Amino acid sequence: MATADRQQTVRDEDVDAERARDELRDVLRVAGVKLPSLSLDAVSCAGTAPGVLVDLGRCNVETARALAVALRRGVGR
């Protein structure tokens, strides 16, 4: 794959990962959950392997429980 093609693919992956992160952030916000460290994983963005990772980050116990409650509600639908 040419370097320009690979760079375009990486940019596309970054944009897709940003959208996924934003979608997750928005739906969590509606559920009353805020993951303070939600971001893209910098190492996977800079790497050559395909697949940018969304880093869910760290959260306190209260946030983890709120996330569990939100997921249980969704599972029960």
SSE inventory with pairings:
Layout (H helix, E strand, L loop, with lengths): L2 H28 L8 E2 L1 H5 L7 E2 L5 H15 L2
Antiparallel strand pairs: 1-2
Query: The biggest beta sheet, please?
Result: 2 strands, antiparallel
> Widest sheet: strand order?
1-2
Distance between the ends: 45 Å
Low-confidence stretches: none
Beta strand count: 2
Q: Tell me the Rg in angstroms.
A: 15 Å
Oligomer: single chain
Report the total helices: 3
Mean pLDDT: 83
The backbone outline, from C-alpha atoms, is elongated
How many domain units? 1
Instruction: Report the order of strands and helices.
Output: HEHEH
Strand content: 5-15%
Range of helix content: 55-70%
Question: How does this structure look, described?
Answer:
Strands 1-2 form a two-stranded antiparallel ribbon. The protein has one domain (3-75). It has helices at 3-30, 42-46, 61-75; strands spanning 39-40, 54-55. By secondary structure, the protein is mostly helical. The termini are far apart.
